[in-house]
Amino acid sequence: MNRRPGLSARLKLTISYAGFLLLAGALLLAVMWVFVLRWLPDGRDPRSLQKTFGPVIITGPNRSDLLHGFAPAAATALAFLLVFGLLGGWILAGRMLAPLTRIASAARTASNGSLSHRIHMKGRQDEFRELADAFDTMLEQLESQVAEQQRFAVNASHELRTPLAITQTLLDAARNDPTRDQGELIERLHTVNTRAINLTEALLLLSRADRRSFTRESVDLSLIAEEAAETLLPLAEKRRITLDVTGETTRTVGSAALILRMVMNLVQNAIVHNLPAGGTVTVHTEPRHDASVLRVENTGHPLPSELVPALTEPFQRATERIRTDEHPGVGLGLAIVHSVVRAHDGTLDLTPRPTGGLLVTIRLPGTPRASSPGGAH
């Protein structure tokens, strides 16, 4: 934005300090002048002020004498106050505004693309230190988000390039070998194309959640959990996994579509990354104080605790977890879950179970419970 040049904040503060000091000095001199005039006679009166203390008589000065002696001294004092105020105000304003100068310099450095710079202002806590600390925190978050976006872009490009490269290879093979079975080629192309579509849709969903571009409405987590379980029940039965949904009415505010996708991802992951047979998946919802809680717990192979933080990052797969060709996923399942939870101002907690498997706990902002008995639908 183009602005007309104006006075600097330091000069404005200097003028303010000097003006205030000059005004205070003038008021003080005026009070002294009025106070003294009360006790002095007018110079045109031939009588003089006499105060008698016993036999001694004292004759005082008149107003004319005081005016001739007081006015030059007052003018000199005011001039001194003006010079002192300007000089002292300039020095004090410079010291007071020094933290702002450092913050402005850091902001210019950040605007040029360097987000690694930090102010690290020392000293006791005050408004300027609080502003500097908040600016450092903002830069740290921006640097982390930019690095995450760059890493995500690289991974997404790699993941999208894979199905395209496979498609190109299949088409080249079909062109070089016209006698090849077309049915097999079409089936493989269909599989690769489906994976590319799923990946693209997942990327779009992740972007939508990150931008928070959705309409918020009242959502019942218990109904969402039942819908997700009903949809994925055939997959659970095929893998001989017991799928249970428990809990009560648990309301929150958000996007029903995004929350459903979040629960679907959690339940599908819990089914796929489970025991080969005889495993269990439990989905539980409950209102707790001012939060709505969703828990998804599954059996499975032991999961190292140091591996858990990487599960919510895009395209980061736990190599120790069992994966099948039937449902390989696109590497964005828990990343989408994390993004949806963050977009709804909630928290996500992943805890490895001692006996194997994972416990996922999601807390979303709750809504006041219904006044009807038991909170029934």
3D architecture notes:
It catalyses: ATP + protein L-histidine = ADP + protein N-phospho-L-histidine. This is histidine kinase. Its EC number is 2.7.13.3. With 377 residues, the protein is an alpha+beta fold. The protein has three domains: 103 residues; 83 residues, Orthogonal Bundle (Helix Hairpins), CATH 1.10.287.130; 159 residues, Heat Shock Protein 90 (2-Layer Sandwich), CATH 3.30.565.10. Helix content is 54%, strand content 14%. The strands form three sheets. A five-stranded mixed β-sheet has the order 4-6-7-9-8, with helices on one face. The chain starts with 8 loop residues before the first helix and ends in a 12-residue tail after the last strand.
State the gist of this model.
The protein is 54% helix and 14% strand. The chain has 377 residues and is α+β, with helices and mostly antiparallel strands.
